[in-house]
Amino acid sequence: MKSRFKLLGHPVHPMLVVLPLGLLPASVLSDLLYLATGRRDLASFSFWSLVVGLAGGMAAALFGLFDWIGIPAGTRAKRIGGLHGAGNGVVTALFAMSLLTRWGDRDRRPGPVSVLFGMLGGGLGMVTAWLGGELVYRLRVGVDDDAHLDAGRSPERDALLEVDA
């Protein structure tokens, strides 16, 4: 099953996820660096990374929702897609809390609570990103009309780290 929304022949959802996938973890890293160094430019970078990353995440979520609606009910792909989307809703809420905890500070400095929200969001984001990969790489959702929407897990077939020679 192919993506419902495309731009120049390519699915829109994967185009949009690069912003939150890059900027939200970058905000956590710059928060940690700010706490270690006290450099205000790192706090400012983190703040704006959160703003743009959250906006990009909401745009990606909209197109992901449209694609998810097109997945047939009762399939493994529908279940995994639901977990992926709901989990990313929680990720977004955690990063939004990180943003809100520093909103009143004139210099947008993160405190320990801001960093904790970001780290929790980043950790959960790794799980939801894996679920997105499961949809694309194993179940072929959004890739082709011959998607395997009920393909099972096959850890015995997949090595932990595969290298093609």
* Category by helix and strand content: mainly alpha
Low-confidence segments, ≥5 residues, pLDDT <50? none
Counting structural domains, the number is: 1
SSE pattern, N- to C-terminal: EEHHHHH
What's the overall average pLDDT, rounded?
86
> What gross morphology would you assign?
elongated
Task: List the total number of helices.
Answer: 5
**Strand order in space, largest sheet:** 1-2
Tell me what you see in this structure.
- Strand 1 (6-7) and strand 2 (10-11) form a beta hairpin.
- The chain is mainly α.
- The longest helix has 30 residues, at 40-69.
- It has one domain (13-138).
- The radius of gyration is 18 Å and the shape is elongated.
- Helix 4 packs antiparallel against helix 5.
- The chain has helices at residues 12-16, 18-37, 40-69, 76-100, 112-138; strands at residues 6-7, 10-11.
- The protein is built from five helices and two strands.
Summarize the structure.
The longest helix is centred in the first third of the chain and has 30 residues, at 40-69. This protein has 165 residues and is mainly α. The chain is built from five helices and two strands; from the N terminus they run ββααααα.
